[in-house]
Structures are given as C-alpha cells and as structure tokens.
Amino acid sequence: MPCLNSLTAAVLASLVLTTACVQAESPPVLAGEFSSPPAVQASPQKPGSTAAPQPAWQVVESYGHDRRIFTQGLELHGNRLYESSGLYNQSFIQHVPWPAPDRAIGPLGQTHPSLVVTGGVQANRFAEGLTILNDELFLLTWRSGEVFLFHPETLQPQGKLRVSGEGWGLTNDGKSLIMSNGSAELRWLNPRNLKVRKRLEVTDNNGQPQANLNELEFINGEIFANIWQQDRIVRIDPDTGKILQTLDLTTLWPRAERPGRADVLNGIAWEPLSQSLLITGKRWPTMYRVKLRDAPGSLLAATKPNVTNNTAAPQALTKPVN
Questions:
Q1: Quick one: which of 64, 229, 303, 322 could link to 105 by a disulfide (CB 3.0–4.6 Å)?
Q2: Which of 3-12, 124-133, 262-271: highest mean pLDDT?
Q3: Computed over its alpha carbons, how large is the radius of gyration of the chain?
C-alpha cells in the first residue's frame, strides 16, 4: 500500500475518533427489545393561533344499559337508580342497584331480574319523566293529564293527581316539582296538589325561547335539561331562565354509529359521590358517567357566566314520540 501523506492521515484519524465516540454513546440493542424511535419535536404554534378548546365534559366510565328501555326519566336516589320507560302498551318504571355488580348485567345490558324492582303503568298511558320527593315517586304521563304516585321502594301505586297540558320531564328542588311540557316553559308545582307555584321561560344567549325542553335534573342549584331530538344538554338558571351553558354531546355516541332501534339522547341523573352525571338515551346499550370540567362544588362560577358550545337557535319541532 502506498504511503499516505500527513494531511490524509490526519483526516482519517479524525473520522475514526468520531465513529468511536458515536458508538460509545449509543447502547446496543439487545435481543427482544426495540430501539427507541427518535423524539418527535412539537411544531411551534403559529403566531396568533389558539389551541382547540377542550370539551366541557369527559367520559369517566361506561356501564351496560338495558337497550330495551325507552328512557324517559332517570334519577339516582340513595343507592338505587330509577328509570321510566315510555311508549303506549310498553310503559313501566323500575329501579336497580347502583352501581350494579358486573356479573349481574346480561348481554343486552339488562340487570338480573333478582335485583330489579318494577312497577307497571296502564297500557293506555305513556310514561314520561319521574322524580322522588317527600318519600313519594311522581311519574308524569304524556297526554293523559295525570301524574301517578308510587311507593319509592316497592313501586306499588299510591294514587294519582291531575295536571294540565302535556308532561315531558320532571325533577324537584327539594320543595317543588319542576316540570317541562315540550315548550320553553318550566313550571314549579306544589307536590300535594300540583297547583302552579311559578312559571319560567327558558331563553338562550340571544334572548330567544329554548323550545323542546325534555328530561330534567336539578343539580346544585341549576336545572339540566335534554333538548328533544338533539344531542345537547342545557344548564339553566332557575331564577332567570337563562341558559348558562350548552353541553354538546354529539360525540358521546355519534348518530352514524347507532342502530335503527336506538333513539335520541335522553336521561340525566346526578351522582353526588363522584360529582358526575349519568347520561344515556332511549334504547341505548350504554350508560355513561360524565365529568364536567368545572365540577365539583357549584357547577359554574359564582358569577354564572353565559358559556355555550352551540350558538345556533334551535328550531321548534312537532313531537310524535318524545
């Protein structure tokens, strides 16, 4: 081999030294292991751009739900979850332990019959919302102008009261029943005789009436309401009727993924222990436990600012089956 000049020798020596250093710094990959991928550097945010807003809610857990139930009312009372199922000739009410043991849930989401307490509803009555107040369970009906009373443990009938207009959703604030009828109006009723104590129109940020108020739940001084035929829940100030926030739940179970029998989002219950919502729908196979990002405690700040995720004014709908 011919002799190398001094410059060439120096360059080769430098390359050998560099290669040795790189090899010394890189640990060998052992059998059965994967080498770590190179670190991904975050792209710098463009000037003036803003991060995508976080949803106002997140799913914490999901449970099987009896997909045969056409959910109209939902309420957690003690350690029992109460639910009313609608439709003529099919209506009933029930309560089950909450949470139910995993092994007690069947393939259709139904709780084992030994754990279910069921109450019947007349075949020509369409069950709607329910609530428990003063150790009585109140069950609305759609168009019969009746509210049925049941014993909350046995679900044995205890009588009935008359109410004017259609019945949709029902909840209570500890003193009065609060009822929706599919319009933008909420009514506070005396639980002894259903006489109206107060009427309140619910309005959006533009001052427009919010029609189609359906299932209701009174939570920490606010009223939560499903909007019929929309995957939205609104939070209402019970003093002013103003919508404080709109929860967009279109991604909870997207409509494109629902089979033909599954219907709309409907059913709100409050779980005080975890400070979270229980949410489901008509003939849905799943009950979702949803955490709000401003829980626990008072669900909104003391000033109760108006916060909405949907700003489009809802259109009134003709309701064939709510």
A1: 64
A2: 124-133
A3: 29
CATH value at residue 104:
2.130.10.10
**Domain assignment present for 239:** yes
The pair of three-digit structure tokens given for residue 294, joined into one six-digit string:
């401003």
CA 31 to chain centre: 48
Q: Encode pLDDT of 232-276 as tens digits.
A: 999 999 999 999 999 999 999 988 888 877 688 999 999 999 999
Please give the Cα distance from 268 to 179 (Å, whole number). 14
Under a CB-based contact definition with an 8 Å cutoff, are residues 288 and 269 in contact?
Answer: no
Q: Which residue has the tokens 């209402």?
A: 236
Q: What's the Cα-to-Cα distance from 28 to each of 15, 25, 52, rounded to whole Å?
A: 21, 10, 41
Q: What is the pLDDT of residues 266-296, one digit of tens each?
A: 999 999 999 999 999 999 999 999 999 764 4
Tell me whether residue 105 is in a domain.
yes
Instruction: Specify burial of residue 36 (Cβ count, 10 A radius: 0-12, 13-18, 19+).
Output: exposed
Does the residue 10 lie in any domain?
Answer: no
Amino acid at site 50 = T
Count how many domains the chain has. Answer: 1
Indicate whether 233 belongs to any domain. Answer: yes
> Which residue range forms the structural domain that includes residue 206?
57-292
